[in-house]
Design a protein that fits this description.
By secondary structure, the protein is α/β, with parallel strands linked by helices. 63% of the residues lie in helices and 10% in strands. The chain has 3 domains: 201 residues, ABC transporter transmembrane region fold (Up-down Bundle), CATH 1.20.1560; 114 residues; 238 residues, Rossmann fold (3-Layer(aba) Sandwich), CATH 3.40.50.300.
C-alpha cells in the first residue's frame, strides 16, 4: 500500500494547493478592483466630510471609492500585466483559462487521491475482515459457545463495513480538508495578520463541542452495534429453527421478539442521529458568533483607520471559504468516532486468546500404530466437573462404544481427542504422544467425524463430499458415495452430483444427509473415526442404510462410537458405560449383560419400550 499512499498524498497536496490557489487568485484579481480607488478623487466627499466618525456613514464613505470604474479597471489591468506577465489584449482570455486550469488540476488531484485512498482503504479493511474471520475459525469450541453466531456475523460484516467507510471515504476528506484548512489559514494570515490571530483565538472554542459530540457518538455507536448483533442473533435463530417455529405456530411470538429488538435498535439510532444532527448547528452557531465578534472588531478598526473596507472584504472572502472545510471536518469526526468504536469491538474480539493452539515445538502426527489413551483425564465447564479421572486405552483398529445417560460426559470425552477442548488435568495420547504436542492440523487430519447434527454447506453434492478437495476426480467421489449407499439417490437429483443441496442440506432427508456425511468421512480416509449419535433421529429404513454405510466406514479404523440406541453398539469390541463423569462399567455386550449393572438396566429399558 506504500505506493498508493504516496500517490494519495500527492493528490491531496495538489487538491489543497488548487483549492487555496483559487482563493489566492481572487485576491490579486478582484482585490485590485477593490483597492484601485483608494487614492482617487472623491466625488462624494462633500456628502461625507461633515459626518466623519458616524458608523452609519461607513457604507457611503466606502461607496465613494467605487465610482471611477474605468480608472479602476485600467489600474487592475496594469496590476495583472505586472504580476502575471500578460498584456491588456489577452488578459480577458488568460484569466478564465487560468481558472479552468486550476479547477482541472483540482479535479484531477481529487480523482487520483480518491482512487488511491479507495485502494488503500478497501485493501486494508478486506485484510481486516479476512483476519477476523480466520481468528473466529481458529477459536476453540468454548469461544463459540460464549459468542452467538449472529454477534460474530455482525462484527465481520457491519463493524468492518463501518471501518471501511471511514478509511476508504472519510480519511480522504480528513486529509483533503485538513490540508485545505492549513492552506487557507496561511492565506488568511497573509491577508491581515491581526484579524487572523483574533480568528484563531476564537477557533479553540469550536473544538469543545466537536470533541464532546465525538465521544457521545462513539458511545452510542457501541450500543447501536450491540443492538445490531442482537438482531443478527435473533434472525439467525429464527431462520435456523424455522421448522420448530412453524410446528409450534410461534411466528407471531418470534416476530414480537424481533420487533422489540428492532425498537431497541431504533431508539439507539435515533439518539445517534440526534447527536449527529446537533453537532453541525452547534459548531456553526459558535462559528457565526465568532464571526460576529470579529466583525465588531473590524468595524472599530475601520473607524480607527487601522483597516480598510477592501482589506476586510478580502479577509472575509477567505474566512468564509474556511467554513466548508470546518463543516466537513466536523462530519468526518462523527463518522471516524463510529469507526473507532467499530475498530475497538473488532480488536477486542481478535484479542481474545485462543486456548487451543500449537505448543512450541509441536510436531506432525503420522498414523495410529498402538492406539489412543486417556490417562487420568478430568474436565470442567465453568468450574462444573464433567469428567473425573477417566482412564481408557483403545487399541489401534478397535471399536469402542461409549454409552450412558444424557449429561454423563460422553460427547465431551470424544471431543477431547481432536482437541476441541483440552483436559483440565491428565492427558490424551496417540501412540504415547500427548495430543497437545502434535500440530493441530496434523492431529485433526487423523480423525474423521460423523455426528447427529450433520453439517452440510449450501453447495453441490460433489463439493460437500469432497469438502476442501475440489480437485478430486468425480470417480473417487462416486466411489465414496457408493460405499455410503448414497450414489443411487444422488443420481436421482436434478443435476446429480452438481445439484445444490441448500443450507445445511435442507433439500435432503435426514438419512440422505447422514449418508453424505459418511461419504465425506470415507473420502477423508482417516485412521481414527468418531461417530457421535450418527443414527439418531432416523427412521428404521434410513437407519438400516446408514448402518450399512457405517459398517463400510469403520473397517480397519480405530473407532469411538457414542449412541443412545444400544442396538447400534452391540457389535462393538468393547463398551464403556459412563455416569456422572466416571467409567463405571467396561466390557463386551454379553459381558455387561451378564454383569447385570447399569448397562443391562439401560438395555432392558430400551427394549421393553
Amino acid at each position: 500500500y506504500a505506493g498508493w499512499a504516496m500517490l494519495a498524498a500527492a493528490g491531496i497536496l495538489v487538491y489543497a494547493a488548487a483549492t487555496a490557489g483559487t482563493a489566492a487568485l481572487i485576491k490579486p484579481i478582484f482585490g485590485e478592483v477593490l483597492l484601485a480607488g483608494d487614492e482617487m478623487p472623491n466625488p462624494l466627499g462633500s456628502l461625507t466630510e461633515h459626518h466623519e466618525g458616524r458608523p452609519q456613514t461607513g457604507i457611503v464613505a466606502d461607496l465613494k471609492k467605487r465610482l471611477n470604474v474605468a480608472q479602476q479597471i485600467d489600474d487592475t489591468y496594469e496590476s495583472v500585466k505586472r504580476r502575471l506577465g500578460v498584456n491588456r489584449d489577452n488578459v480577458v482570455y488568460f484569466l478564465p483559462a487560468l481558472f479552468v486550469l486550476v479547477f482541472l488540476l483540482r479535479c484531477l488531484a481529487d480523482f487520483v487521491s480518491g482512487y488511491a485512498f479507495q485502494n488503500i482503504g478497501l485493501g486494508v479493511t478486506t485484510d481486516i475482515r479476512n483476519d477476523l474471520y480466520r481468528s473466529i475459525l481458529e477459536q476453540s469450541s468454548r469461544f463459540h459457545a460464549d459468542h452467538p453466531s449472529g454477534e460474530l456475523v455482525a462484527r465481520v460484516i457491519n463493524d468492518v463495513a463501518m471501518m471501511q467507510n471511514a478509511v476508504a471515504n472519510r480519511l480522504l476528506d480528513l486529509f483533503q480538508q485538513s490540508f485545505t484548512l492549513v492552506a487557507l489559514l496561511a492565506l488568511l494570515l497573509s491577508t491581515h495578520f491581526r484579524l487572523a490571530l483574533i480568528a484563531l483565538i476564537v477557533a479553540p472554542a469550536l473544538l469543545i463541542p466537536i470533541v464532546r459530540f465525538g465521544k457521545g457518538m462513539r458511545r452510542t455507536s457501541h450500543r447501536s452495534q450491540e443492538r445490531m448483533a442482537d438482531l443478527a442473533s435473533l434472525m439467525a435463530e429464527g431462520v435456523r429453527g424455522h421448522r420448530v417455529v412453524k410446528a409450534f405456530g410461534m411466528e407471531d411470538f418470534e416476530l414480537h421478539r424481533f420487533r422489540q429488538a428492532t425498537r431497541r435498535h431504533l431508539r439507539v439510532n435515533l439518539w445517534a442521529q440526534m447527536l449527529a444532527n446537533s453537532a453541525g448547528p452547534v459548531v456553526e452557531s459558535l462559528a457565526v458568533i465568532g464571526a460576529a465578534a470579529l466583525l465588531i472588531y473590524a468595524g472599530k478598526a475601520i473607524r480607527a483607520h487601522q483597516l480598510s473596507a477592501p482589506e476586510l472584504v478580502q479577509f472575509l472572502t477567505t474566512l468564509f471559504m474556511l467554513y466548508d472545510p470546518i463543516r466537513k471536518l466536523n462530519k468526518v469526526n462523527l463518522i471516524l468516532q463510529e469507526a473507532t468504536a467499530a475498530s475497538q469491538r473488532v480488536s477486542r474480539l481478535m484479542a481474545i486468546p485462543n486456548d487451543i493452539q500449537d505448543r512450541p515445538g509441536a510436531r506432525d502426527a503420522e498414523t495410529v500404530r498402538s492406539g489412543v489413551a486417556y490417562e487420568r483425564v478430568s474436565f470442567s465447564y465453568d468450574d462444573r466437573p464433567v469428567l473425573r479421572e477417566i482412564s481408557l486405552d483403545i487399541r489401534a483398529g478397535e471399536i469402542v462404544a461409549v454409552v450412558g445417560p444424557s449429561g454423563a460426559g460422553k460427547s465431551t470425552l470424544v471431543n477431547l481427542l481432536p482437541r476441541f477442548f483440552d483436559p483440565v488435568s491428565g492427558r490424551v495420547a496417540i501412540d504415547g504422544v500427548d495430543t497437545r504436542d502434535l500440530k493441530l492440523k496434523s492431529l485433526r487430519s487423523l480423525i474423521g467425524i460423523v455426528t447427529q447434527d450433520t453439517v452440510l454447506f449450501n453447495d453441490t453434492v460433489r463439493h460437500n463430499i469432497a469438502y476442501g478437495r475440489s480437485d478430486l476426480p468425480l470417480e473417487r467421489v462416486r466411489e465414496a458415495a457408493a460405499a455410503a449407499y448414497a450414489d443411487e439417490f444422488i443420481m436421482q437429483l436434478p443435476k446429480g452430483y452438481d445439484s445444490v443441496i441448500g443450507e445445511s442440506g435442507l433439500r435432503l432427508s435426514g438419512g440422505q444427509r447422514q449418508r453424505l456425511a459418511i461419504a465425506r468421512a470415507l473420502l477423508k480416509n482417516a485412521p481414527i473415526l468418531i461417530l457421535d449419535e450418527a443414527t439418531s433421529h432416523l427412521d428404521s429404513e434410513s437407519e438400516a442404510l446408514v448402518q450399512k454405510a457405517l459398517y463400510n466406514l469403520i473397517q480397519g479404523r480405530t473407532t469411538l462410537v457414542i449412541a443412545h440406541r444400544l442396538s447400534t453398539v452391540t457389535r462393538a469390541d468393547r463398551i464403556v458405560v459412563i455416569e456422572a463423569g466416571r467409567i463405571i462399567e467396561e466390557g463386551s455386550h454379553r459381558e455387561l449383560l451378564a454383569l447385570g449393572g447399569s448397562y443391562k438396566r439401560l438395555f432392558d429399558l430400551q427394549f421393553r419400550v
